[in-house]
Known about the structure:
Elements: H1 17-49, H2 53-66, H3 73-87, H4 91-94, H5 98-110, H6 113-123, H7 127-131, H8 136-146, H9 151-158, H10 162-165, H11 171-182, H12 185-192, H13 198-202, H14 212-218, H15 223-240, H16 246-258, H17 261-271, H18 282-294, H19 297-307, H20 311-315, H21 320-330, H22 334-347, H23 349-353, H24 360-367, H25 376-384, H26 386-392, H27 397-423, H28 427-439, H29 446-455, H30 459-467, H31 471-481, H32 483-494, H33 499-506, H34 510-517, H35 522-528, H36 533-541, H37 547-555
Helix pairs in contact: 1-2, 2-3, 2-5, 5-8, 8-11, 9-11, 15-16, 16-18, 18-21, 21-24, 22-27, 24-28, 27-28, 27-29, 28-31, 29-32, 31-32, 31-34, 34-35, 34-37
Amino acid sequence: MPKREAPAHQRPKQQSKYESKGKNRNSEEDDSSSRGQQQKRQRMERQKQQATGELKLEARKKWEELRRGDLDPEVRKAKMQEMMELIQGRIKEITFKHDMSRVVQTCLKYGSSSQRASIAEELDGTYLELSRSTYGRHILVRLLKYCPKQRRAIIGAFYGHVRKLVRHKDAASVLEECYAVYANAAQRWDLVAEFYGNEFAVFKDGSAEGSLEAVLAAHPQKRATILSALRATVVPLLEKGTVQYSIVHRALLDYIRHADAKERQEVIETMRELVVEILHTREGAQAGMLCLLHGTPKDRKAIVKAMKPYLRKICCEEHGYAVLVEALDCVDDTVFMAKAVLQDVGDMVGELLGDQYGRRVPLYVLAGRNAQYVGSEALRVLAAGDAVRAETSKKDAAQRQRELRASFVGAMAQWVAANARAAVFEPFLSQAVAETLVHDDGAPGAAWAAVRALLAADDETAMRVLTDAVANRVVTTCIKARDAYARDVLEALAADGAGRLRAAACAGAFPVRALLEAPATAQRTRQLLADAAGSIRDAMAGAERKRTFEAILAGL
């Protein structure tokens, strides 16, 4: 007889494939966890066998507590004392390890001045070695920050080694920290002068000439030697693309300034794509401006194309905007500049005009080398290059400016038309409004209509525009700039029987004075205000500042 199958409730329960996989996974996780714990125990055992093993393990335990941000100051002080008792005298032994470097950094951050000085004293003599260490360099940066008395010794440790350190991937960042943040003028000169040759690397007197110009003026026979040494340092850095440090920017600037035309051109060709990386510092921006000034048309276009993806950032850089201004000042192909630069600047003009530095680029396009808008340092560099520009440029400077303005003023006019109501009362933005209206060579359009509408609005708005310290300058500037604007202003103020004009005159508004001085509106303005002289004198009697009232009365 065939064997009968047992009932379902009596059959042994079989595992599903999912349950089997889950158990296998859990088993694998347990094995992995077990292996991890075993590896951790083995690692700790190996560390204990090292000379500083016990010290490291104990220091890490205390560090975990010491680094907490919510630790009570008194508790932190006690923990810091325990840590110093543990590591004092053995700091050099543990400094160059990743985990212990963090321990020492935390001690420098939270330690007292005496504890910091103790750490610095132990590390004295190892500063150069620390700067080359992947982990030790962070300790050196902390020493520079928290131990002012040690800065001279740290910077002094680099003397004689600058040309090697600037090529080292770890030491270069520490050298830059010293040069850009903590060194005084004499120390910066001693550091950068090492690029000029062995003589400057060896002899340090702390009272050097302070600039390459002064050295060459005092020792013209050393010119060839110095520039050769400078080129030997600068060119390899350019070829490697390691130009992000300000000390390198200083060396680049010195070389471009003093090299002969052929050698300068070779460096500029190498720098085409790198100018965008150096314009965030004063020396780097000036070096970039000189590259544009002395470069060929091909070089200039290559530099501008490299800057195009970063226009917003460059415009808002404290020094970088000047490089863009130099490009606008020397590139003859204004059609190229309009497409590569001004089109994008026009698209973000609202954002740029609100920035301290970003506003300078659009205002330069409108007003040219106006000291009110362009920084004095940038103007000095631009003026110094005029002689070179006259030889290398085929286009007249005034013509170039007109062509650039013509391609850009439309975007500015659109912005003014959309934002005039708020912009005329803002100090920075009102300047952009005034310059746009003054330099818009066409017939008065939507931009002027938006400003005129404010004068033709209700009495309160019109009087606010005429008497506000910022807005009245926009109206006054427009009256002085163009007769058409002056006539429109007078028409708007005389539309209700000259009531607004009289009220503005009694308020001592500058635009009224401008209307009396403008040839196109002087006669009619005097007629409209002929019977208001008494009211103006009464208003002047109670005013603190009387000069504008006096000028208005004199104009009548």
